[in-house]
Amino acid sequence: MEVLFYIVLLVLFMGILAALMIPVAVRFDSTEKYVDVEWMSLSLTRLLRRKGPRRPREKPKKKRHITVILRFLLRDRYLALEFFQRGYGSVTEMVQSVSIREMEANLSTPDPMWNGVLSGVFANIDLENVSLSTNFENINSFKGRLQVYPYKIIKVVTGFLIRLPYRRVIKAALSTKKR
Length: 179
What we know:
Blueprint: H1 2-21, E1 24-29, E2 34-39, E3 42-47, H2 64-75, H3 77-97, E4 98-107, H4 112-123, E5 130-134, E6 141-148, H5 150-162, H6 166-178
Helix pairs in contact: 3-5
């Protein structure tokens, strides 16, 4: 009975690992206004069109927890530096784990001079599977296809969490509570 339980547990674990090896494909198009996420033949499409008139935005209330976190980080400069260094490294690793399959951007600015400057800059950029262009018609469009492997993202997040200086975080949190 116990052996069967461990075999089932091992098969379940191997199935989850195999599922995490399958890439997530993300397609987006600003002209047709949609984002499509596909993983293991499951597709989730989100249309980005707004229905009805726009409501005026209310001024957001100040969030107290953000100021508390900033105050917490500013008290211990070593901790703040550690968070920023590890956070920057993790973000760059996540960006490197994204694979651009196809990307096309057509940009325009209100000023024709800047359109000409952009056109000159884009003419010298030669990236694989990336097409950048400008137009003078005030039409902006952006479409592309990206691929992300979930196990790479999980690896980066767990690496960030494992390397955090938890003893220092707890010590700083306890000293903040005492004040």
